[in-house]
Amino acid sequence: MSSAHHNRAIALLSFAAFASSASVRLCDPMLPDLARTFLTSPAATSQVVSAFSLAYGLSLVFFGPLGDRFGKYRLIALALLISMLGTVAAAFANSLENLILWRLITGASAAGIIPLSMAWIGDTVAYEQRQATLARFLSGQILGVIGGQFIGGIFADTLGWRWAFSFLAIIYLAVGIFVFVESRSNPSTRPSSYTPATRNGVLAQIVIVLGVKWARTILAVVFFEGMIVFGTLAFVPTYLHQHFGLSLTMAGGLMAVFGAGGFSYILFAKYFVRRFGEVGLALTGGILIAAAWFIFAIIQSWSWSLLAIYLVGLGYYMLHNTLQTNATQMVPEVRGTAVSLFASAFFLGQSLGVMLAAMLLAKKGAVGLFVLAACLMPILSTLFARFLNSHRLANRGKIG
């Protein structure tokens, strides 16, 4: 396999991850504007966020097995182009119900992009180099988180939220065409031959994954990670807008600091891995995220949110990249299915987290939400670190 061909294929997957991540976070800063447009509350419009995550999580059950059987790279191209159509339709939605419907459809199609990319990287990159390669791939995902928040905020403040969907649809179309061409012309993207496990049906492949105790542990941890981190993070732009009077553009733009935290992890990933190891990264990540939510609970000036958002980004990528790396190896014979179930659990956790956070926000306010998230995060990261340490001791020398 040509190194140049392989690097180009990974670079395109990073662009695809940008589009998918931007779509996930696009509506966060829009919630107040959507509430004004459809004459309802930000809590009601939060269904636009949770619907996307719910559809994303549920449809992943099918993408993984399909990618294992028919080719991950070509399926990513198809997912990009269908997501473009759903995003165009969302731009023309004439009611909140219609917008939620099109976000459901887009979430279902966008679901395959990032997990299938991770699984393809797992298929083509040795475990020893995989964390560094995934970190490179994550750069597109991080920029998408930043870009989605910023695009949503700036269009909501200027031309209107419909133009944000239109702009993202153009990105989906351009990246989808390039990935499709790559899937036809690049030898490194061609489907690998079936393994005995991938000849089984979808349900059988899922049963194989769920039959592995370590896989069940990873899935449970990433579910709660998505619930605590992104269920809370979805309301940060609204909090900054309502409590400190920031414009939606500025509130969304501040979320770029989340990406700065992520890039700090990528730049120093090799050092962090050597210094802390996977167990230490999990513990440290959880502590940093908890500290960030406590800062949000007590700040009297929006400027402190810069530090808090940065810590969320750095801590999240420390914890999540450790989870991702383990997910690519938890059931290698059906890697696409395993990684898709991983992403499914993550987004189902996000969907539940947004719904629960909206209810808590309405009853206890933002401070109650931040304090609860700050208390839960160290518990989760400590449990995962203990499970990870036990797993690595039991399987020393077997990973590869």
What do these coordinates show?
By secondary structure, the chain is mainly alpha-helical. It has one domain (3-188, 198-394): MFS general substrate transporter like domains (Growth Hormone, Chain: A, Up-down Bundle). The protein contains 17 helices and no strands. The protein has helices at residues 3-25, 31-37, 42-45, 47-70, 72-91, 96-110, 113-124, 127-157, 161-185, 202-210, 213-233, 236-244, 248-254, 256-267, 269-298, 304-327, 335-394. The model has no long low-confidence stretch (mean pLDDT 83).
Question: Could you give the topology of this structure?
Answer:
Elements: H1 3-25, H2 31-37, H3 42-45, H4 47-70, H5 72-91, H6 96-110, H7 113-124, H8 127-157, H9 161-185, H10 202-210, H11 213-233, H12 236-244, H13 248-254, H14 256-267, H15 269-298, H16 304-327, H17 335-394
Helix pairs in contact: 1-7, 1-8, 1-9, 4-5, 4-6, 4-17, 5-6, 5-7, 5-9, 7-8, 7-17, 8-9, 8-13, 8-14, 8-16, 11-16, 11-17, 12-13, 14-16, 15-16, 15-17
Provide the number of structural domains: 1
How much beta, percentage-wise? under 5%
User: What is the CATH H-level superfamily?
Assistant: MFS general substrate transporter like domains
Unreliable sequence segments: none
Helical fraction equals over 70%
Mean pLDDT: 83
General shape: globular
Provide the CATH topology: Growth Hormone, Chain: A
Derived structural class: mainly alpha
- N/C terminus separation: 20 Å
Query: What is the count of DSSP helices, taking H or I runs of 4+ residues?
Result: 17
Q: Report the radius of gyration as a whole number of Å.
A: 20 Å
CATH architecture, by name, is Up-down Bundle
